Amino acid sequence: MLSWALRYLATALVVAGGFAVLQGGGWLERATAARSPEPSIARTAPRASAQGDAWQYVVEAGPHGHFVLDAVVNGVPITFLVDTGASAIVLSPEDARALGFLARHLEFSRRFRTANGEVRAAPVRLRELRIGQFSLYDLEAAVNEAPIGISLLGMGFLEELAGYEVADGRLILRW
Description:
This protein is α+β, with helices and mostly antiparallel strands. The chain has a single domain (31-174), classed as Beta Barrel (Cathepsin D, subunit A, domain 1). Helix content is 22%, strand content 41%. The protein has 4 helices and 11 strands. Strand 7 and strand 8 form a beta hairpin. Mean pLDDT is 78; it is low at 1-45.
């Protein structure tokens, strides 16, 4: 009887949790919420460490399994969602403005196919992208023409690393 009650309770929690996720909007809204200081969206502080000759930076998954990290781009703090489905580093229009990339001076000549259809973006170059003690220089990126809730670190970023992996709810970046 007790095992039946526990299974029933676990099923009810999973269904209720799934319903709450569906009612709470899409993954982008939840990832964007990670930018706020609300305690319910608290993130574990990432940590950098040396392993032999390689350095690694570990990011814990957020409450919904997404990897959100803070970086400094050209001296400006920017929050990114790590997105292996994105081919490039993509800046939201808001983050682009903070970096001095103004829409009226950009040419939205790139096209990206997304789950929501085709979007236009403007190519830009980032002088420096720093995460913890790790920096990359002179990177290609794109400014999304349409609003997006959070900037993306796509494969254009990940391919610059010595390696990366996802294991046990953690993203491990190596350089």
